[in-house]
């Protein structure tokens, strides 16, 4: 199924389905290679600040409020004759969200450093932490898991709400399909990291979540393991993971990286590798 063999997975990624809190020890180095005891993971986890948490809570409340408002408006203006378009919009919304999940994940994994002003600590840090302690996400609560994803939807779901408030019913009808697409895109972007968290959860998932994973409606656990094989250079899409297959086939990410490296001289994943090697 994937592009990594069972041997690759065993030697170059953390065993997530073991119940030992995932602190694999490398026999020669006597240092944890992954997990919460890894020196880099401890340092990165300690950089999650109170200010960041407040920002996440504000964004979650605002985003969920806007989504509820938009959903009510979509219901009020729903025309049953358009139902088939809405199903098409749902599909396009899912695929577009999967694409953005891959693009943002790839960009944060591949370029930049935790030391960059503003974005380093707030945005790049969780991606570095996730590679050296992949199951930390399963210990994060709803706010820490979902705050950033809900935040990025705010500009366009706020603009949707503004249109509902200022447009005439005729103008809303004229844009209804586009608004449905935007709404579903926003929903799927918002739930991306929750789907990602479930893909790392090997114990205690509700049966309906594992069913959605087994039918590959959301990101399956076995599928996402492929990304977590060092050096983390493929399978970046994490909403459903559907686009990972065609992107692998056309070598989308390596080509993109080669172009950027040729233009800027930056080495892909240089910062990620530094954190992986951190021992004290
Ligand atoms: Zn990653
Ligand atoms: Zn992951």
UniProtKB/TrEMBL annotation:
<keyword id="KW-1133">Transmembrane helix</keyword>
<feature type="domain" description="Lipid desaturase">
    <location>
        <begin position="94"/>
        <end position="271"/>
    </location>
</feature>
<feature type="transmembrane region" description="Helical">
    <location>
        <begin position="84"/>
        <end position="108"/>
    </location>
</feature>
<keyword id="KW-0472">Membrane</keyword>
<dbReference type="Pfam" id="PF10520">
    <property type="entry name" value="Lipid_desat"/>
</dbReference>
<dbReference type="GO" id="GO:0016020">
    <property type="term" value="C:membrane"/>
</dbReference>
<protein>
    <recommendedName>
        <fullName>Lipid desaturase domain-containing protein</fullName>
    </recommendedName>
</protein>
<dbReference type="InterPro" id="IPR052601">
    <property type="entry name" value="Plasmalogen_desaturase"/>
</dbReference>
<keyword id="KW-0812">Transmembrane</keyword>
<feature type="transmembrane region" description="Helical">
    <location>
        <begin position="54"/>
        <end position="72"/>
    </location>
</feature>
<dbReference type="GO" id="GO:0016491">
    <property type="term" value="F:oxidoreductase activity"/>
</dbReference>
<comment type="similarity">
    <text>Belongs to the fatty acid desaturase CarF family.</text>
</comment>
<dbReference type="InterPro" id="IPR019547">
    <property type="entry name" value="Lipid_desat"/>
</dbReference>
């Amino acid at each position: 199924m994937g592009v990594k063999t069972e041997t690759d997975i065993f030697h170059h990624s953390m065993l997530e389905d073991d119940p030992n809190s995932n602190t694999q020890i490398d026999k020669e180095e006597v240092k944890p290679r992954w997990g919460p005891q890894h020196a880099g993971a401890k340092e990165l986890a300690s950089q999650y600040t109170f200010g960041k948490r407040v920002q996440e809570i504000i964004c979650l409340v605002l985003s969920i409020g806007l989504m509820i408002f938009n959903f009510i408006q979509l219901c009020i203006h729903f025309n049953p004759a358009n139902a088939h378009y809405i199903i098409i919009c749902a599909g396009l919304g899912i695929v577009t969200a999967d694409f953005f999940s891959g693009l943002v994940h790839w960009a944060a994994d591949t370029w930049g450093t935790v030391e960059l002003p503003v974005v380093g600590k707030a945005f790049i840090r969780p991606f570095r932490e996730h590679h050296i302690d992949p199951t930390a996400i399963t210990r994060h609560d709803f706010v820490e898991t979902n705050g950033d994803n809900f935040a990025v939807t705010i500009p366009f779901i706020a603009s949707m709400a503004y249109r509902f408030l200022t447009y005439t019913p005729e103008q809303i009808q004229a844009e209804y399909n586009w608004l449905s697409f935007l709404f579903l895109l926003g929903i799927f972007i918002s739930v991306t990291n929750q789907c990602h968290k479930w893909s790392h959860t090997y114990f205690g998932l509700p049966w309906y979540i594992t069913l959605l994973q087994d039918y590959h409606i959301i990101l399956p656990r076995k599928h996402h393991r492929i990304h977590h094989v060092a050096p983390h250079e493929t399978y970046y899409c994490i909403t459903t993971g559907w686009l990972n297959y065609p992107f692998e086939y056309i070598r989308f990410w390596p080509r993109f990286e080669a172009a950027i490296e040729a233009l800027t001289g930056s080495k892909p994943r240089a910062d990620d590798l530094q954190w992986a090697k951190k021992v004290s």
